[in-house]
Amino acid sequence: MVTSAAQGRVAHSEPDYIARAEALAPGFAARAAEHDRTGSFPFENFRELSEAGLLSLTVPAALGGAGAGARYTARVLGIIGKADPSTALVLSMHYINHLVMGRSPTWPAKLSRKLARETVDGVALVNALRVEPELGSPSRGGLPATIARRTETGWRLTGHKIYSTGSPILKWYLVWARTDEAEPRVGQFLVPAGLPGTRIVETWDHHGLRASGSHDVIFDDVVIPLDAEVDIRKPADWNARDITQATVHTVFVAAIYDGVARAARDWFVQFLKQRVPASLGAPLATLPRAQEILGAIEVRLAVNARLLDTFARDFDDGVDLSTGESNVVKLTVTNNAVAAVEDALSLTGNHGLSRTNPLERHYRDVLCGRVHTPQDDATRIGLGRAALGL
Question: Are residues 247 and 362 in the same domain?
Fold first, then answer.
């Protein structure tokens, strides 16, 4: 049953959710440097997101959420990513899973309704735990070492996941595992956080996105119900990527790093206006070279804005898109974002790399865009093979 609070949220338009994100962003930005310095998790940000009705942005309207599509969700993530990309990354994974489960015929309706209801009513986040120490990213192929053993009373799950973004706050893990059958099947199991045999090992001490809580999660013979099975298939049946998953993942992740680049641009503009070298006797903003560098940043960000908005709009409009095309968007936007921050650093020198200024943090954060699936080499190889007909 949809609560009265949820019904009130549904009545709002999608632009209203953008306004809510913009209202929260200054507070997130003010806290971001301290969370980065200490590696602490921004729990307060998610409490505020929940109170603003933003955790349920991609939950279907029929289940009490906003039912937002890719375009407005990417805009919200860009706003939050500009303020605190660690928060935005956790939020993006949550958004992706709810958008996919709302559209997927393989998701058990009972489970998707349960997660939707909890997200509408409170702070109940979900993320997929897929990466392992030996396997790496499943996108590169291979069977997971995490094993689900079926018994008469439930599944028993044992394994080790790394880079589990948002682990300090997640209520649900969507765990990628294989069965112990003679011919193993592979897929997703929905696991509540905090079950006996589950523990979080705080291993995340990263160069960028330090507040994302992307720690290890270890499962030691964890018992889950038989109906916790979400989508289990033969390994070969996973060869074709889900276009919904592929599209929203690439667009949402790219929007975060574009937001980081925009934060860097804003700081750079103020630096150019306020920095007055004694040898020049005028602000750096008066130099043609500074104007040209800033103009190059504007070019990259303009391309990003058009790519993200158009591609997300096409997805929402039901245009037939390809995985290769979505991969190109992610590659182009994230590399433009990295280059934009590097352009700013090329003129700021020591000021830009000083920890007293946010540009240093923006640079560390934006570099993380390159490690998200799909990585640049996989995208280029895929496109090259397609062009060769291989």
Answer: yes
Strands 186-192 and 147-150: unpaired
Query: Do 110 and 227 contact (CB within 8 A), yes or no?
Result: yes
Q: Which of residues 205, 238, 271 is at a domain's end? A: 238
Q: Are 97 and 130 in contact (CB under 8 A)?
A: no
Tokens of 283: 């602000």
259 neighbors 88 (Cβ within 8 angstroms)? yes
pLDDT in tens, 62-120: 999 999 999 999 999 999 999 999 999 999 999 999 999 988 888 999 999 999 999 99
**Together in a domain, 263 and 368:** yes
Taking only the tens place, the pLDDT of each residue in 16-56 is: 999 999 999 999 999 999 999 999 999 999 999 999 999 99
Q: Are 290 and 272 in contact (CB under 8 A)?
A: yes
Tell me, yes or no, whether 206 and 257 share the same domain: no
Angle, CA of 46, 49 and 53, to the nearest 5°:
140
**94, 38: one domain:** yes
Full domain range(s) for residue 65: 4-123
